[in-house]
Write a structure and sequence with these properties.
The protein has 3 domains: about 5-35 and about 65-250 and about 285-405, no CATH class; about 260-285, no CATH class; about 410-530, no CATH class. The protein has a 5-stranded mixed beta sheet, with helices on both faces. By secondary structure, the chain is α/β, with parallel strands linked by helices. The protein has 23 helices and 7 strands. The chain has helices at about 5-30, 35-50, 75-80, 85-110, 120-130, 145-165, 170-185, 190-205, 210-225, 225-250, 255, 260-275, 275-285, 285-295, 295-305, 315-330, 345-350, 350-370, 375-405, 410-420, 435-440, 465, 475-485, and strands at about 430-435, 450, 470, 475, 490-495, 510-515, 520-530. This is Glucosyltransferase GtrII-like protein.
Length: about 550
């Protein structure tokens, strides 16, 4: 290997290592505060108790709940390892997959025949340091998540689509496209949503149809390999999305942020005027601001598409097309009626590899023509340094957020100990809370739970809007119905909402007493004349 060739290789390797290190630092900072770990631990335990078979109805939940939007492939893999390995993997899987995606982007960028040898290295560096990836509140930085897997497979699928368009007889291209799409369906609900929406928009806006064919073929493979499980998962995911759009979105995302667009015109400025710190944090979570300011190469790639700059290179033109499709997906999902499809900035995040390849090519090509190749390369690395500075600020923000959360009084562990100590031998703990975030945190315990883990089938006979005042807070009447119907014997009350239940207790409620009390939390112990029998614990999908 010559010295000239080795320098870009070293830059690419350094970009991968840098991505891993920064992601690992953020994962470590946020490890104590990610609540999804509890859900993952719960699902992994359910798989083990189900003899390592996939299921459709979720065991150990007293209420009827299914795996809508909860693919189990990743949990099935981790079910075969010890909890200690899972805990380490939870912190390292996202950094590892992020680093792998940097290498994948560098490899794909190397297909651009018209660019110099440093182009792949610059793309790897810019992608590795894209500020949006290190957003202090990104779900990718709070423990185990299939999102990084989904984004990696989506990048591979779109790359496979490029190979197929270049050569429709390419076995390598079709294999990469179909296998990647199958893995998206298997591992990531959001990855599947992004695959469908971005593929459709790419076809409508730019005429690229092969990723749609890959999505269909991958779905067929998924269904053929696990027919009962896959069909159950797809059906309940459809019900989840439909119920989320009608019932949950109004009491969850839309109640917290009325309109992403109204934010820009009015709401952010009102909040900043009242409380600058609160207003800036609110602005930091706005999808349009995140997409435009923390991922600026999208703007460059789209301008390249409009001005036809750099479009004579097939890969660059293809990359700009998918950057446009990703930005269009963000705009489509930014409306109130479509917010149920997930945070709009996720679709920008999903197509960042193509924005980087297209945007970097357009920017470097423009600077090369105007000045020189050396000046263009210098500008590319300079932009990487700017990105690095923004990333450093966000990592510092993660630390500040972590310190703030650490300053809050811890009550959950003490409450868990009190509930376990107060349980009667042979009687299963049946738990619920008026704040279902508390229920979520309790899931690692080997108890039975009433928990709205996925919408789509109501909740104890109630619609979601009827049960929740604002997600995840239950109305008092709804909680009382859940407690009475499921014969709950341990009920945690967030005292900021309300701290007692049953002005007129049910006839078969023999005793109710306080088992644990703190400044913000009260745990009630309930004794019933006829306790409820345990729910089914084996609901198998093939």
């Amino acid at each position: 290997m010559t010295m000239v060739a080795s320098v870009p290789a070293l830059i690419i390797a350094a970009a991968g290592v840098m991505t891993f290190v920064i992601s690992a630092v953020q994962s470590h900072i946020n490890a104590k505060h990610g609540t999804d770990h509890a859900v993952h631990s719960f699902l992994i335990r359910c798989i083990r108790q189900n003899n390592y078979r996939l299921f459709v109805r979720i065991p150990n939940l007293i209420n009827k709940a299914y795996i809508g939007a909860l693919p189990l492939y990743l949990h099935w893999i981790f079910a075969h390892f010890s909890p200690g390995i899972m805990r380490r993997a939870e912190r390292l899987i996202n950094p590892f997959m992020n680093a792998c995606q940097v290498l994948l982007v560098a490899m794909v960028a190397g297909w651009a025949a018209g660019m110099n040898v440093y182009f792949a290295a610059i793309c790897a560096l810019l992608f590795a340091l894209t500020p949006q990836f290190y957003h202090a509140l990104s779900a990718r930085n709070f423990g185990l998540s299939a999102r990084s897997l989904g984004l990696f497979f989506l990048t591979a699928a779109i790359a496979g689509g490029y190979l197929v368009e270049a050569d429709p007889t390419s076995i390598k291209g079709w294999g990469l496209l179909i296998i990647s799409c199958y893995l998206i369906w298997a591992f990531s609900t959001f990855g599947a949503q992004a695959l469908i929406l971005i593929s459709v928009l790419a076809a409508l806006l730019t005429g690229h149809f092969h990723t749609i064919a890959g999505a269909v073929a991958g779905l067929i493979v998924f269904v053929c390999l696990h027919p009962r499980y896959s069909l159950g998962y797809l059906y309940h995911t459809y019900r989840f999305i439909r119920a989320y759009s009608v019932e949950l979105a109004p009491v969850y995302v839309l109640s917290r942020r009325y309109s992403i667009w109204r934010d820009i015109i009015r709401d952010i400025w009102i909040r900043i005027a009242k409380n600058p710190k609160d207003g800036l944090r609110y602005a930091y979570e706005n999808s349009l601001i995140v997409s435009a300011l923390l991922n600026p190469l999208f703007i460059v790639a789209i301008l390249g598409k409009i001005t036809v700059l750099g479009q004579d290179e097939p890969l660059v033109a293809y990359a700009c097309d998918f950057a446009l499709a990703g930005w269009a997906a963000m705009l489509v999902t930014s409306l109130r009626r479509t917010r149920f499809l997930g945070e709009p900035e996720r679709y920008v995040e999903a197509t960042t590899p193509w924005a980087v390849i297209g945007g970097a090519a357009v920017l470097l090509g423009f600077l090369s023509e105007r000045y020189s190749v050396e000046a263009a390369d210098t500008a590319g690395f300079g932009l990487g340094l700017v990105f690095l500075a923004v990333v450093a600020i966000q990592v510092a923000g993660s630390k500040i957020l972590s310190n703030y959360l650490n300053s809050k009084p811890h009550q959950i562990e003490d409450a868990m100990k009190a509930i376990s100590a107060g349980s009667v031998d042979g009687e299963a703990v049946r738990f619920c809370s008026n704040n279902e975030q508390y229920t979520k945190l309790m899931l690692p315990n080997d108890w039975q739970f009433s928990y709205c883990i996925a919408v789509g089938h109501g909740y104890c006979g109630m619609a979601i809007g009827e049960a929740f005042s604002q997600f995840p807070f239950l109305h008092r009447e709804a909680l009382e119905k859940i407690v009475a119907t499921y014969k709950i014997n341990a009920c945690a009350l967030d005292r900021a909402l309300f701290e007692d239940i049953f002005e007129n207790p049910p006839a078969d409620l023999l005793k109710i007493e306080t088992q644990f009390l703190s400044e913000g939390l009260r745990v009630l112990r309930l004794e019933w004349a006829s306790p409820m029998t345990a729910p089914a614990t084996s609901a198998v999908g093939g």
